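This is your field. Pick holes in the following sequence-structure pair:
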Amino acid sequence: MTGISDLTARVETILAGDDAERAQLYPGPPPGRQPVHTVYVPADRFTATTVREWGAAAIDALDQHGPLPGFDEADEAPVRAKLATEPIEDLRVDFEDGYGLREDDVEDRDARAAALALSATPAAFSGIRIKSLEAPTRRRALRTLEIFTETTPPPGFRVTLPKVTSVRQVEAMVAVCDELDLRFEIQIETPQAILGPDGTALVALMLHAAAGRCAGLHFGTYDYTAALGISAAYQSLEHPAADHAKAVMQVAAAGTGVPVCDGSTNVLPVGDTADVQAAWALHARLVRRSLERGYYQGWDLHPAQLPTRFAATYAFFRDGLPAAAARLRAYLERATSGIADEPATARALAGQLIRGLDCGALTADEVYAASGLDAAGLRAVSSS
């Protein structure tokens, strides 16, 4: 009879390649924080003062049309502080749908001006969205990227590639980013990215074809739902078709270290106070909905969406603190409780508290008091 030592050696040999492949394809959560939103600003409207202007406009909206529906005065104070210090976490200068088609000399000029402005912008994360690599816009997309990168990009820079329809487009973008030493995001806004002609979930193949250069999967609400023939009145990031696409993205990205970003709502907080309040209520509900489904980032398209982005995000993590911290403490202390948590759940609980710390919703002192762990301890649990 074969001894256990010999059997173990055989199994180790059989699975060695599988272990190495899994470690390469699924390295686990990425280090550092994920921004809670991405703000898209058309390139011709972007300047070095845009971030500051958006923060001021958001505070002005609160002054004119507040308070935020569903939140109290205590909720609003940290939001105002955030708007005064870091109103935009992730900024994307848009050369695609928000910018449109221009003469080459005009887009050349705007690309150079935007690159200089972005180098002076105080955003933790930033980048540009180029046009797609489909044949009609391919040359223009690459020309804009080349011009833009003549100015050294700031730290945290990435390129958003829209309307991706094939794995080969991703492979082509990898070749470009290898040359320029950049990372890029794949924008999932075509049905072909979710389901290929052979029934394959192409988004998973696209992600792995990015060869470690993929910085995120971003959902495009309106292009995707429109491509499915959904009437304009019902196009929304909470439409069942949108939920299906994002669920496929979420499964494809799980364990890879690539974050998933939800889309936007085009219902903007503009007009009279009644209109603004209604749009705020909708936006806050949609932000909360995304967070509850595990999408920790989304798009914002207007300064007046910033108050509800931060208010809803902060409320989500603050509401979850007591239970998450208590469950994590009970798990670590092997205490008997009404919930039998397992290691995977402990990792998720620690990850939730880390996200709350990273976005500013929670303080280190209150998390330590509730859970018994500091940030380093939480990260050790979340990656165990």
